[in-house]
Structure formats: C-alpha cells, structure tokens
Design goal:
- This protein is α/β, with parallel strands linked by helices and 141 residues long.
- The chain has a single domain, classed as 3-Layer(aba) Sandwich (Cytidine Deaminase, domain 2), CATH 3.40.140.10.
- It is built from 3 helices and 8 strands.
- It has an 8-stranded mixed β-sheet with strand order 7-6-5-4-2-3-1-8.
C-alpha cells in the first residue's frame, strides 16, 4: 500500500491537468520505515523526453538535485508519478522497462484534461511486471 497525504495527491492531480496534453512527471518524497511508506510531498519535475506526449524522462542532473533536496529536507525519495494523457493509468512497456526496484510509481490517467483514475504500482520482484499497489489517503493527524 502507498499512503499519500491528500495535499500531495491533489498536487499530483493539478500538475497532471496543467500539463495536458503532454505527459508530466514528478517525484514522490516522504518517509519510509519498517516496510511502510508515506508520501508527504509531490515535486513536479521537468519532462526531458523527446516525445513528451507519450514518455517521461528525468535528466541525470535533475535527479541528483532531487536526491540532494530530499536529503536536505529530511525526506526519502520514494518514487515517481507521471500522467498518461488520454490513456489508462496502467504501466506501459516503457514504464516497465524503466522501473527501478524499491520505488513506488503513481500513474494518473488524464482524459480530455481531467484526471480520471489514479493507480499505484511497484516493480515485481522478478522484474517482469508491475504490481498494483493500493493508494490510501489516511486522515491527517
């Protein structure tokens, strides 16, 4: 399960809607301990893909900055989110081939500019598929 703060999920949906009809991407940051992960922040990233309508790419430099920023803020980089414009919130073959172990992935289906479905994913242990992860927005305490 991926626990995500409501503000982080709202920020993801807003970024996905604003980027439409292009695919957007961003980082998921938060806390992880004892196998539990809680996304506290969603940080938009520049999509450096040559075909941003159907792909996302984070540059190595931006990745280094992202890791440093998370570390300085006391966060852990938990994974990434991205949108699928006018497509299902399911991993593509490219998503699978680019997925890293131990990261969470949130995919948002954006239909005609409106976020429609949001699903969490994680690379399977055998790295042959992506496994669905339940998204949970626990009450803020």
């Amino acid at each position: 399960m991926i626990a995500i703060a409501r503000a982080a999920l709202d920020a993801i949906h807003a970024h996905c809607a604003d980027a439409y009809p292009l695919e957007c991407c961003g980082a998921l940051v938060g806390k992880a301990s004892a196998g539990r992960r809680r996304v506290e922040g969603a940080w938009p990233l520049q999509n450096d893909a040559s075909a941003p309508r159907v792909r996302f790419v984070v540059s190595p430099e931006e990745y280094r900055v992202l890791e440093r920023r998370a570390d300085e803020g006391g966060w852990t980089l938990l994974g990434f989110y991205h949108s699928h414009p006018d497509a299902a919130a399911r991993p593509s073959a490219t998503d699978l081939s680019n997925a890293w172990p131990n990261f969470d992935y949130i995919i948002v289906s954006v239909m005609a500019g409106t976020p429609a479905a949001t699903h969490g994913w994680r690379l399977a242990v055998d790295r042959e598929s992506m496994v669905g992860e339940e998204l949970s927005c626990p009450s803020e305490s």
